[in-house]
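ARCHIVE CARD
CATEGORY: sequence design from structure
SOURCE FIELD: tokenized fold
FIELD CONTENT:
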């Protein structure tokens, strides 16, 4: 199929979901380019994201749709959605309200590996997860 013919396919026809019906979505700040998180989407969450212009994902642990920020208020407004050359990975460019990470950091990638293989915090703590989600028992 030529590149031009491929562009005529609809976006949803292009996305290749895996055997579990999921596709990985890398989430990036639309202004800074900083990678905020990676999450999974199924067709329903992707359709909801396209319709609402707010990021919605599939929670593998809870086995349900997850509107980003529904508990914390840290919503993600969609600016752009890109699909890779194979159609099997998405890139969402978003405006992030508050922190993207459920442990309170701006990005889920808040730990850097040092030369001695220890780690250091390299991001900003945006909120206290106990205040937002309650204490975990």
């Amino acid at each position: 199929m030529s590149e031009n013919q491929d562009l005529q396919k609809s976006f949803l026809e292009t996305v290749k979901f895996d055997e579990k019906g999921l596709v990985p979505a890398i989430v990036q700040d639309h202004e800074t380019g900083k990678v905020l998180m990676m999450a999974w989407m199924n067709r329903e969450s992707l359709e909801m994201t396209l319709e609402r212009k707010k990021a919605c994902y599939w929670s593998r642990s809870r086995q349900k749709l997850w509107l980003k920020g529904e508990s914390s208020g840290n919503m993600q407004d969609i600016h752009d959605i890109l699909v890779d050359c194979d159609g099997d990975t998405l890139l969402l460019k978003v405006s992030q309200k508050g922190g993207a990470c459920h442990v309170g950091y701006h990005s889920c990638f808040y730990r850097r590996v040092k030369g001695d293989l220890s780690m250091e915090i390299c991001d900003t703590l945006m909120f206290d997860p106990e205040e937002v989600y309650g204490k975990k028992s």
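CARD ANNOTATION: The longest helix spans residues 43-52. The chain has four helices and eight strands.
SHELF: design records, drawer C
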